[in-house]
Design goal:
Helix content is about 35%, strand content about 15%. The chain has about 325 residues and is of the alpha/beta class. It has 2 domains: about 120 residues, NAD(P)-binding Rossmann-like Domain (Rossmann fold), CATH 3.40.50.720; about 180 residues, Rossmann fold (3-Layer(aba) Sandwich), CATH 3.40.50.720.
């Protein structure tokens, strides 16, 4: 880096404080500036003169990247980085990093929570009791979880965690994860299959994949049509992996039994989202990542990536190659 005081910009954040980031970067003499950028123009203004960006949801598009005259690094708070134009950053020789390991247990826990809640029809049961209804016959049929099959799309850290939880409940595990050797699946107690086979065979389909050009609307009308009528779709990854309109139609028409999701295509979910108001669709507000510990780790790990750049050390979690 140059001899000037490094300027690190947090483009946007919804945390209570940035203490962990200060703890990592203040000893390095960094000028840390924090903004609430939500648009391209706001991101451009925030990023002026920056050496590194820490980004949550701000759109770091090619237009934004084109104005970053000094920036060497963009770090996304989180696993996904679809709000950063990685190709444009690479062209400008700007490193892009994510934080893939800040909360895999929380996300796997939440995915399995959704699976259990949907399988046991927890929400309608609890709501009915509050309304004075005490009638177990309203929730038939409910199957025994042990012996059923979960199909996991994306067998990375979180997907592997879901597999471990499923096995603990006596479930069979199928997984779709391209370009992995068979031993990789065996170590995680999963049987590798192609996507169509997974969709046809699984009683529960759990999405743990990253959102990119290849996975955008990976689950659409055709794929939903392959699923069992009693199957339940779970998504704690990214909303864009599933065609929300197609999912709403499949649920309304009873072509699948239910969905339990933590993410939707447009967030926060707008009042006209077709998935709202469907009794068989359980939605939580993109909360799977959250625990006090995971948020603390997320901020620390993101800031440590910036510190590595400033010290001239190799980056830990690059998603592009600018060499």
């Amino acid at each position: 880096m140059n001899a000037h005081r490094p300027r690190v910009v947090v483009t946007d954040w919804d945390y209570e404080h940035l203490d962990e980031i200060h703890a990592v970067l203040d000893p390095l003499g960094v000028e840390l500036a924090a903004y609430r950028a939500g648009t391209e123009d706001e991101a451009i203004e925030a990023g002026r003169g920056s050496d590194a960006l820490l980004v949550e949801y701000a759109p770091i598009t090619a237009r934004v990247i084109g104005t970053l005259d000094r920036c060497r690094l963009i770090v996304r708070f989180g696993v996904g980085y679809n709000n950063v134009d990685v190709a444009a950053a690479t062209e400008r020789r700007i490193h892009v990093c994510n934080v893939p390991d800040f909360g895999p247990d929380e996300i796997a826990d939440h995915a399995f929570l959704l699976l259990l809640a949907a399988a046991r029809k927890l929400v309608p049961m609890a709501n009915d009791v509050q309304s004075g209804i005490w009638d177990v016959s309203r929730y038939k049929p409910i199957g025994r979880l042990g012996g059923q099959t979960v199909g996991i799309i994306g067998l990375g850290r979180t997907g592997s965690g879901v597999a471990a939880r499923a096995r603990a409940f006596g479930m069979q595990v199928l997984a779709y994860q391209p370009n992995r050797p068979r031993g990789y699946f065996a170590e995680r107690g999963a049987r590798p299959v192609e996507l169509d086979e997974l969709l046809r065979a699984a009683d529960f389909v759990s999405i743990q994949a990253a959102l990119n050009a290849q996975t955008q609307h990976l689950i659409g009308e055709r794929e939903l049509g392959l699923m069992k009528r009693r199957a339940i779709l779970i998504n704690t990854a990214r909303g864009g992996i599933v065609d929300g309109s197609a999912l709403a139609r499949a649920l309304k028409e009873g072509r699948i039994a239910g969905a339990a999701i933590d993410v939707v295509e447009r967030e926060p979910i707008p009042p006209d989202d077709p998935l709202l108001g469907i009794p068989t669709c359980l939605i939580t507000p993109h909360a799977a990542f959250y625990s006090e510990e995971s948020v603390r780790d997320l901020k620390t790990l993101a800031a440590e990536e910036v510190a590595r750049l400033l010290r001239g050390e190799p980056l830990r979690c690059p998603v592009n190659d600018v060499s």
